[in-house]
Amino acid sequence: MIYFDSAATTLQKPPAVPAAVARAIRTVTTPGRGDHSAARAAADVMLQLRSEAAEFFGVPEPDSVILTQNATQGLNIAIKSLVSPGDTVAISGYEHNAVTRPLHAIGDVTVKIVNARLFDPAQMVEGFRMALDGGARAVVCTHMSNVFGYVLPMDDIAALCRERGVPLVVDVSQSAGTQPVSLKQWGAAYIAMPGHKGLYGPQGTGLLLCGEGQKPKTLLEGGTGSLSRQQEMPDFLPDRLEAGTENVHGAAGLLEGLRFVKSLGTQRIAQQEGQVIARLAEGLERKGKYRVFRDSGGESPVLSIVPLETDAETLADRLAENEVAVRAGLHCAPLAHITAGTAETGTVRFSASVFNTPQEADRVLALL
């Protein structure tokens, strides 16, 4: 199979990832619930993951790195900790349902959508400036569009938020592992990411990075192995947000995925993925049968197209019949399609990982 669906989940993993999961299944139990060797080994896995993730993502304290089930869980915690009924929140026009649905669920929230053109960072920054000047009390923004691979000007958006003292939540689901991400540099309140995409970890893992001074609300309450006599959840991290037995087996795999990314470096990963996607995009543009969405100056691992002679689902099905994995539709981000004018058609999305090759791009172009 030629796998171009890594924006959903990376299929090819570094060998150390499944090996670490298998080893953990045999050797670790639950951290913080015992003093035997298997419990201590579990605690060591969690400490190493927090410590290495904190260093890599610019988090001052390892305890502020929370293990989550996915980015969606992290975004729900972040949004529901900062946003209350009656608030005004600014978001980009490229947000995933993992952002828009929690805001809708809170109720009575005014959402200001910054509808900037694709691949126009200056207009995006100006749109957020106007939204903040208009009274937005929080900003929730994706770093990279999961549909179009558009890398938003996060440094500039973060600077605006810092100037005005407005908390910022960043969804780095598509950029973690391929783009520089720093809680400290951005001054973000929260950053949420999955483990199973660009960090090459197992499904069912993710990280929530909590900024200094944040007081997150809980989504779940239960046992933490600490302060067991009291009925309120602990007020310190990570215990406050990690009720019940954590996915330590998945954490062991995520740790190895993170180490794999660190060993290569995000710049090298972005270059390799960008070369493959650029090769696909240029070939598709030459064919003249597709509307191709790409930033010619970027190194994005994501490419969306609209076929002009058939529909997106049919093209994706034909590719699947020929052992090419892509995704068609709205990609859980209808707002992005409304912004870009593809809400009626959806797109066919090609998304690369570091394991894809230019030769695979050529084979796909030949099939098309």
The termini sit apart by 16 Å
Radius of gyration from the CA trace? 21 Å
The CATH superfamily name of the largest domain is Type I PLP-dependent aspartate aminotransferase-like (Major domain)
What would you say the CATH architecture of the largest domain is?
Answer: 3-Layer(aba) Sandwich
Task: Name the poorly predicted regions.
Answer: none
What structural category do the secondary elements indicate? alpha/beta
Task: Give the overall form.
Answer: globular
Summarize the amount of helix as a percent range: 40-55%
Query: What is the H/E order?
Result: EHHEHEHEHEHEHEEHHEEHEEHEH
Mean pLDDT: 96
- Helix count? 12
**Binned strand content:** 5-15%
Could you give the order of strands across the largest sheet? Answer: 2-8-7-6-5-3-4
Text of the CATH class of the largest domain: Alpha Beta
Total separate domains:
2
CATH topology of the largest domain: Aspartate Aminotransferase, domain 2
Write the layout of secondary structure elements.
Blueprint (H helix, E strand, L loop, with lengths): L1 E2 L12 H12 L9 H20 L8 E4 L2 H12 L5 E5 L4 H10 L3 E5 L6 H13 L4 E5 L11 H11 L3 E4 L11 H4 L3 E5 L11 E5 L37 H17 L1 H22 L2 E4 L8 E6 L4 H10 L2 E2 L1 E3 L4 H7 L6 E5 L6 H10 L1
Parallel strand pairs: 1-11, 3-4, 3-5, 5-6, 6-7
Antiparallel strand pairs: 2-8, 7-8, 9-10, 10-13, 12-13
Helix pairs in contact: 1-8, 2-8, 3-4, 5-6, 9-12
Question: Brief description of this entry?
Answer:
With 368 residues, the chain is an alpha/beta fold.
Structure description:
- With 368 residues, this protein is an alpha/beta fold.
- It folds into two domains: 16-264, 3-Layer(aba) Sandwich (Aspartate Aminotransferase, domain 2), CATH 3.40.640; 265-367, Aspartate Aminotransferase, domain 1 (Alpha-Beta Complex), CATH 3.90.1150.10.
- Helix content is 40%, strand content 15%.
- The chain is built from twelve helices and 13 strands.
- It has helices spanning 16-27, 37-56, 71-82, 97-106, 121-133, 154-164, 183-186, 248-264, 266-287, 312-321, 334-340, 358-367, and strands at residues 2-3, 65-68, 88-92, 110-114, 138-142, 168-171, 190-194, 206-210, 290-293, 302-307, 324-325, 327-329, 347-351.
- A seven-stranded mixed sheet has the order 2-8-7-6-5-3-4, sandwiched between helices.
